[in-house]
């Protein structure tokens, strides 16, 4: 076995690839070689480092120095100064502890425990980190019913937005007798400003697979599908590698571990419609039809894709499952408040110093997340609003900064946790413009099946455009509310129902921004 | 027996089978929940959202697609629901070409009614309407996207009831619209022109290509000799539209109205319905006796013919070569009638009144010119005739009962029932039995072929006049979805001798040219009226029609003669499933 003086972890994700990480990595290797350091310094490719908008980033161990926004010109300096002379280039390094999440001693990671630490394209890395122990335990020691009960007891709730208890969902499908049941992962992450599932899959694809295996076993599904958005090229690539390796290691296929249980996992690539994140529209799309939502009942758990009982779960939800099985539901309940146990991955964007993602206990306050994990509101500016829960979320004003980010606490403010997106705006932001983009998004993504949503979105777009151009009248605000209310009550699916939240909250808390345009 | 569920609708307790939607349960409680997209004949599309109701301890739910549960307490009207419905109807109106006075659906429009009932005054919501071109490509059906409210009924009836798959949703969000594949127009689609979409459209976005102006022009032109024929199903419908007892067959008043409007001769398609039976019945007997292609499948329904040409060209040789009664009539007018009366056929304008939109397409088929002219010049639907009667200012209800003109006006009860599903079968069996057995059937009422069951089958045993028996396995299907099922059985090799197919559910009484909103119940009732007229008729078999016999004696020779084949028979094509265009001829004229 080879020992190295230092390890460099390079985050390879979609954004760093776009910033040219591969070229910089090659340059780094050649610079190390030139300095005869190849045997002393090891380069490891890993998933996301949890940062966003920091271009090419890497962390050097054991010093735990993180370089961000690297360019080719920086490489020779880092090699000669840091690796040869042992003097980290502080000018290029992230100023710890700006981002608490980035502290490798920070323990509250379940879903992202391996992200940024292991090579996602090597199953051995995952196994070394304790991977697939939970699968072995579930399959060989536990009965499917016990798995369902354990997940039920853990209090895990769906991380896709609705927050439905996962174990309960499974318990509807598990007892159904059917020739074939399906386990489907909703990886069609389309909520604006949400990229947690992408980074989970890019950083630790095996964790998702292990969760799928356990979930499929629990409900008796022998086929599983990952419905993933087509833009997630790197995720698809890494999942394909992971699935292939899992088959090779006997973790998938027929008669796994001689247990008599069969499981195959397939990847289905979506074509990019937001509405296909709605589970029945996702199922329609999977079947090859136009992605329009279906009537419920029958619920997918009873009659889903191709009329088969189908459990649909979000990526993050299922990535929690292996740890619950390994450590037990009591351990899991140690995270987060009652009724909202576990951790939550948030994506923090907008006017903060360090946009990116973090995994924290459910119920952590919005202020803590912004200040400690997002690096605080952009220097020299003041917090104005946060759009929480995605585009279909709620604008929270400064008075609500101390709200605890969990399902139940947010409900008190008519807000939702949604996908866990937090868009921070400072005093320069105009809420009318923000709301305009939200509405324009929904107008574009409405599937057109039901008139309240199709016509309603167009009407809202017309009204907000009018206000934005300074041609609005006071009754336009009233009409926007009236239309959004009608859409909330009568739209066929959550897409049309949810627009009332951003509209109501924007007008309620930031009326001045609107009146400025109207008067 | 399914489990019964107890619920309360506006304080009224009702019990309905498990799985019933709230909207049907409310109906049982005497409450009509407003809706723009739901129709009781069709599966819910759940598109409009207007039918939302309040349910105790639950968010609002759509009544059309939410099944009842035990102890459910439903409120169908409240301040909140009214405001909500008003907003939804206002939104729909804001994206609708509101041209009510000139709209064919004026007075029958479900959007107009709902807006009126909700008392919607001028809305301060801006208009969303972006005018799109109207699709006039089809000879039968006009599609006006500016009126469409995307209720989805047309797609449901086209795809699920008729399995034609001509209409689809295109685009996304607000741009979503009902159109044909690749938006190439109805004429360049597999549309079979059955017009069921027009019957179920709540707002007049789908309607017939109108021939009203052309017919008035002909009527008001002194140089033209204008002749009219009327299909059996039309007379079963006019009464209900003019506020008469809907069970009344109004044939005498219909003749009077047409004469009063200026038609030079008022004949009756029923005449050629009897003629069709003579031709088709003989074709059936010949094929059975000589070991020809079986089963014989009827050819009266032009929607079915185009469907067959598109989806089942493999059975084209089974389909009777007989033209439909409308087309036989058209040829006979410009040959037999013209010759008899010494009228120049180029001056004759032949008009038909049909319960059908596909007849407009059929009349324009290039092979339908055996008289040397287009055999049928204009086709009016029942709906168009009603508008013309109204324009002419006739008090239909109080018109005297008149008779059709001689030569091609006589008909029998067998012809009348052509308008109902199973009627052609019944009429054909009556005559085939007479020819084979040498005597009339003891009971002319063949009840197994009557009623609204989708596919009706029977095993008949016909005694032969020289001894022995002829067993016949026969079947009747109406609605193209049922036709498809039956054809799949034929293709799979199941043995049938004779099959009747009508494109529209209920047969012609449910045709695509019948009044907007014709429900399955309306269709069943109209069929009953026709059977009643048949029962009261003096002559009930086609072979007893003396004018038909005269036409054979004076002009055609005998059934299936060379001349009859020249004038009364046709051939079929294979069509593209994508564009509906002819690919090649699959049968040829003798």
Overview of the molecule:
The complex is a heterodimer of chains A (519) and B (590). Chain A has 519 residues and is α/β, with parallel strands linked by helices. Chain A has four domains: 91 residues, Glutaredoxin, CATH 3.40.30; 211 residues, NADH-ubiquinone oxidoreductase 51kDa subunit (Rossmann fold, 3-Layer(aba) Sandwich), CATH 3.40.50; 84 residues, Ubiquitin-like (UB roll) (Roll), CATH 3.10.20; 88 residues, NADH-ubiquinone oxidoreductase 51kDa subunit, iron-sulphur binding domain (de novo design (two linked rop proteins)), CATH 1.20.1440. Chain A contains 22 helices and 13 strands. A five-stranded mixed β-sheet of chain A has the order 10-9-13-11-12. A four-stranded mixed β-sheet of chain A has the order 2-1-3-4, covered by helices on one side. In chain A, strands 7-6-5-8 form a four-stranded parallel β-sheet, sandwiched between helices. In chain A, strand 6, helix 10 and strand 7 form a beta-alpha-beta unit. Chain A is globular. Chain B is α/β, with parallel strands linked by helices. Chain B folds into three domains: 74 residues, Ubiquitin-like (UB roll), CATH 3.10.20.740; 101 residues, Alpha-Beta Plaits (2-Layer Sandwich); 373 residues, Rossmann fold. Helix content of chain B is 35%, strand content 15%. Chain B is built from 19 helices and 19 strands. Chain B has a five-stranded mixed β-sheet with strand order 2-1-5-3-4, with helices on one face. Chain B has a four-stranded parallel β-sheet with strand order 11-10-13-14, with helices on both faces. In chain B, helix 9 crosses helix 15. Chain B is globular. The model of chain B has no long low-confidence stretch (mean pLDDT 95).
């Amino acid at each position: 076995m080879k020992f190295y003086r230092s390890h460099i972890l390079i985050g390879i994700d979609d954004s760093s690839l776009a910033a040219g990480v591969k070229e910089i990595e090659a340059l780094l290797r050649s610079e190390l070689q030139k300095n005869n350091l190849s045997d002393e310094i090891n380069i490891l490719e890993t998933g996301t480092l949890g940062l966003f908008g920091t271009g090419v980033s890497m962390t050097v161990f054991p010093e735990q120095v993180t370089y961000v926004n690297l360019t080719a010109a920086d490489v020779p300096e880092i090699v000669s100064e840091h690796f040869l002379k042992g003097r980290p280039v502080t000018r290029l390094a992230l100023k710890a502890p700006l981002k608490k999440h980035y502290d490798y001693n920070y323990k509250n990671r379940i879903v992202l425990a391996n992200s940024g630490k292991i090579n996602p394209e090597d199953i051995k890395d995952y196994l070394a980190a304790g991977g697939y122990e939970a699968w072995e335990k579930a399959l060989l020691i536990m009965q499917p019913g016990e798995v369902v009960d354990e997940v039920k007891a853990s209090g895990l709730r769906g991380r896709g937005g609705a927050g439905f208890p996962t174990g309960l969902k499974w318990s509807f499908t598990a007892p159904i007798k059917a020739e074939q049941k399906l386990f489907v992962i909703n990886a069609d992450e389309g909520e604006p400003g949400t990229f947690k599932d992408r980074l989970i899959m890019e950083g630790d694809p095996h964790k998702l697979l292990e969760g799928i295996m356990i979930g499929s076993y629990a409900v008796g599904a022998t086929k599983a599908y990952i419905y993933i958005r087509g833009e997630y090229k790197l995720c698809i690539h890494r999942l394909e590698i992971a699935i292939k390796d899992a088959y090779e290691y006997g973790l998938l296929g027929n008669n796994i571990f001689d247990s008599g249980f069969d499981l195959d996992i397939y990847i289905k690539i979506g074509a990019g419609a937001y509405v296909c994140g709605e589970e029945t529209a996702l199922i329609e799309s999977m079947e090859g039809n136009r992605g329009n939502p279906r009537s419920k009942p029958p619920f997918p758990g009873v009659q889903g894709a191709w009329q088969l009982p189908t459990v649909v779960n979000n990526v993050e939800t299922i990535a929690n499952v292996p740890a619950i099985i390994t450590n037990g539901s009591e351990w899991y309940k140690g995270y987060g408040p009652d009724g909202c146990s576990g951790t939550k991955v948030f994506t923090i964007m907008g006017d903060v110093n360090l946009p990116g993602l973090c995994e924290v206990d459910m119920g952590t306050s919005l202020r803590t997340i912004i200040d400690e994990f997002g690096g605080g509101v952009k220097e020299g500016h003041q917090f104005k609003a946060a759009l929480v829960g995605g585009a279909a979320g709620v604008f929270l004003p400064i008075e609500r900064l101390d709200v605890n980010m969990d399902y139940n606490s947010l409900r008190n403010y008519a807000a939702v946790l949604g996908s866990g997106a937090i868009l921070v705006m400072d005093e320069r932001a105009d809420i009318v413009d923000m709301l305009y983009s939200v509405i324009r998004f929904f107008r574009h993504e409405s599937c057109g099946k039901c008139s309240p949503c199709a016509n309603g979105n167009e009407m809202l777009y017309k009204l907000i455009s009018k206000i934005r151009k300074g041609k609005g009248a006071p009754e336009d605000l009233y009409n926007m509310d009236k239309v959004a209310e009608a859409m909330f009550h009568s739209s066929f699916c959550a897409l049309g129902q949810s627009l009332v939240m951003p509209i109501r909250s924007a007008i309620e808390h930031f009326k001045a921004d609107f009146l400025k345009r109207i008067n | 027996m399914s489990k019964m569920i107890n619920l309360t609708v506006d304080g009224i307790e009702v019990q309905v089978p498990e799985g019933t939607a709230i909207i049907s349960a409310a109906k049982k409680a005497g409450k009509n929940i407003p809706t723009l997209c739901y129709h009781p004949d069709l599966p819910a599309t759940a598109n409009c959202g207007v039918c939302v109701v309040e349910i105790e301890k639950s968010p609002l739910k759509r009544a059309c697609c939410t099944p009842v549960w035990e102890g459910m307490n439903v409120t169908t009207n409240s301040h909140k629901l009214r405001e909500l419905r008003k907003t939804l109807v206002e939104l729909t109106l804001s994206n609708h070409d509101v041209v009510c006075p000139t709209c064919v659906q004026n007075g029958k429009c479900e959007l107009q009614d709902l807006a009126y009932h909700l008392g919607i005054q001028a809305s301060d919501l801006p208009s969303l309407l972006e005018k799109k071109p109207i699709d006039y490509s089809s000879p039968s059906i006009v599609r006006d996207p500016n009126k469409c409210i995307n209720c989805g009924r047309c797609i449901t009836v086209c795809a699920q009831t008729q399995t034609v798959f001509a209409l689809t949703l295109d685009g996304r969000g607000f741009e979503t619209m009902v159109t044909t594949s690749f938006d190439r127009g109805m004429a360049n689609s597999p549309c079979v022109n059955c017009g069921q979409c027009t019957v179920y459209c709540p707002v007049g976005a789908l309607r017939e290509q109108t021939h009203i102006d052309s017919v008035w022009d002909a009527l008001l032109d002194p140089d033209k000799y204008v002749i009219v024929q009327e299909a059996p199903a039309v007379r079963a419908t006019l009464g209900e539209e003019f506020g008469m007892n809907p069970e009344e067959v109004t044939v005498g008043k219909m003749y009077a109205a047409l004469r009063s409007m200026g038609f030079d001769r008022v004949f009756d398609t029923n005449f050629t319905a009897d003629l069709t039976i003579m031709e088709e019945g003989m074709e059936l007997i010949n094929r059975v006796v000589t070991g020809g292609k079986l089963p014989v499948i009827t050819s009266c329904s032009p929607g079915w013919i185009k469907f067959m040409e598109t989806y089942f060209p493999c059975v084209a040789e089974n389909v009777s070569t007989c033209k439909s009664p409308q087309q036989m009539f058209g040829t006979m007018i410009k040959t037999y009638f013209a010759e008899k009366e010494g009228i120049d056929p180029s001056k004759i304008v032949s008009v038909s009144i049909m319960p059908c939109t596909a007849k407009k397409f059929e009349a324009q088929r290039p092979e339908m010119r055996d008289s040397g002219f287009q055999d049928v010049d204009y086709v009016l639907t029942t709906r168009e005739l009603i508008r013309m009667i109204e324009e002419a200012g006739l008090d239909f209800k109080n018109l005297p009962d008149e008779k059709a003109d001689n030569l091609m006006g006589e008909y029998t009860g067998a012809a009348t029932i052509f308008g109902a599903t199973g009627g052609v079968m019944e009429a054909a069996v009556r005559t085939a039995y007479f020819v084979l057995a040498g005597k009339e059937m003891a009971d002319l009422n063949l009840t197994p072929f009557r009623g609204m069951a989708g596919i009706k089958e029977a095993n008949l045993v016909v005694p032969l006049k020289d001894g022995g028996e002829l067993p016949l396995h026969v079947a009747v299907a109406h609605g193209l979805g049922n036709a498809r099922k039956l054809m799949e059985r034929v293709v799979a090799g199941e043995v049938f001798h004779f099959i009747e197919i009508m494109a529209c559910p209920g047969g012609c009484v449910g045709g695509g040219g019948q009044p907007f909103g014709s429900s399955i119940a309306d269709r069943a009732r109209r069929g009953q009226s026709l059977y009643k007229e048949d029962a009261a008729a003096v002559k009930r078999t086609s072979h007893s029609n003396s004018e038909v016999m005269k036409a054979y004696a004076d002009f055609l020779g005998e059934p299936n003669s060379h001349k009859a084949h020249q004038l009364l028979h046709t051939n079929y094509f294979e069509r593209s499933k994508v564009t509906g265009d002819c690919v090649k001829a699959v049968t040829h004229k003798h």
